[in-house]
């Protein structure tokens, strides 16, 4: 698999701010049993980030604003973790990981999972559509398509919601695995501006 990057996939903050890493071994327990814990893990990350928000007179110290930030982080962490679990290539022993980073300006949530070449190709098609159009227009099309089928909209709805509702900047990194030409990993990153979450113009 060819190594490629798309969107905002810059390296972690150097020096790093506060951060937290969680990793799940796909072989230690069935992924179906892990699925039940996605919400719990996302809630934990949402609670964790509010612990390190600025104290005192900062706008992010207000309780209402902290709740807004917690909700945004919880939603995005849950979506990224569910995607990582759902699309993980089960026959590769690659840890499913999620990382939360916090600086004075941004909150970054990153997931990593194994992926097949076919899945990577489908993911790139979605990235191409997102780069060529407005996220809002794509979101409407996804919702309309789901309504016509009487079922949930196609994959990508959660990512589009991150952009439209939370102003997230998305990025991806595809990397190959040694000795496995049709397998690799995908890292998906969502960068949130704290001010954008709170609806404050920069």
Q: What's the helix count? A: 7
**Quaternary structure of the protein:** single chain
**What is the string of helix and strand elements?**
EEHHHEEHHHEEH
Give the mean pLDDT: 80
The structure class reads alpha+beta
| Estimated share of beta-strand residues | 25-35%
Shape: globular
User: How far is the N terminus from the C terminus?
Assistant: 39 Å
Unreliable segments (pLDDT under 50, ≥5 consecutive)? none
At CATH's second level, what is the architecture? Answer: 2-Layer Sandwich
Q: What profile does the largest beta sheet have? A: 6 strands, antiparallel
Find the count of extended strands (DSSP E, 2+ residues). Answer: 6
Instruction: Quote the CATH topology.
Output: Heat Shock Protein 90
Overall domain count: 1
User: C-alpha Rg, in Å?
Assistant: 17 Å
Can you give the helix content as a percent range?
A: 40-55%
> What is the name of the CATH class?
Alpha Beta
Strand order of the largest sheet: 1-5-6-4-3-2
